[in-house]
Amino acid sequence: MKRIVSLTVALVIFYSQIFAQGQQQEQNLQETARSFMRSGDFDNAILVLNRALQADTKNLDLQKDLVLAYYYKRDYVRAKAGVEALLANENADVVSYQLAGNVYKALEEAKEAEKMYKKALKKYPKSGALYSEYGELLWAQKEFSAIDQWKKGIETDPSYAGNYYNAALYYYHTKDKVWAIVYGEIFVNMESLTERGSAMKKLLLDSYKEKLFADVDMMKDQDSKNNFTKAFLQAMSKQASLTNKGLNTEVLTMIRTRFILDWFANYASKFPFKLFDYQQQLIREGMFDAYNQWLFGTVENLPAYENWTKTHNEEYTSFSTFQKGRVFKMPAGQFYQ
Fold first, then answer.
1. Which residues form the signal peptide (predicted)?
2. Where are the domains of the chain?
3. What pTM was computed for the model?
């Protein structure tokens, strides 16, 4: 009996070692392929990945890397074949569907892409990335229903930045005065170090200057049925007189400070909102001036902003240090559209 047990244990150890060696070999091949991709040698990456897949045909990571290699090589026909194999894998994840979307878009197969996104969202109904990219596909076809996808993405996956970016751009080009500002500022706090972040700062400044205070009647052409919109505009309209001599970063700081004080006095209990909580925190800690300079001053007048950082070095340093040590995320349950 002891010999049988010993033999069984020995066999388990033996096959475990073989399995581990196989896994290590696959990982080595995958890293080799990725190294080739990083250097732009997509042919060798494809060769290595195909060899690895011969040993493990259902390996999802290897399948994704192969599709990516074909995509980078601009061999979209083979990339599509790889996508079909990838999506046939029962373990296909969100990234798998994102890769498929990129390939279908590259081939200009919009109907196939749309069908794929609908299938993907049934499987992953809380994926902000999929809502964002499906909306972008619809928008490329001039379908205004794209905004419904971005709104759904914000509602179901509020920590994903892309939907705020797309929704802010959409609303900036409509008569709406609220959501480009709200979603735009959320996005900048989520993604501040990219070109999109810099562009969104400019859109925010333009939204305040060209849209929000453009009409004496701030509620003109706005959604009067949305209580959050009404509350936002009512609080902002009380600050309209501050714009009589124009709008700049300093004036915006005053307007937004008074807005937050009014919001927390009258509306915050009904509409809890992380963005406004953050602004209130900055006011309390004496960093709101620096935050508004960072948000608007950099795009309004860069030399003036750089001069401000020198003359207010302590404020600038405190805010910069604070900002680097935090990650801004919107919580669930604060969707008011």
1. 1-20
2. 185-337
3. 0.88
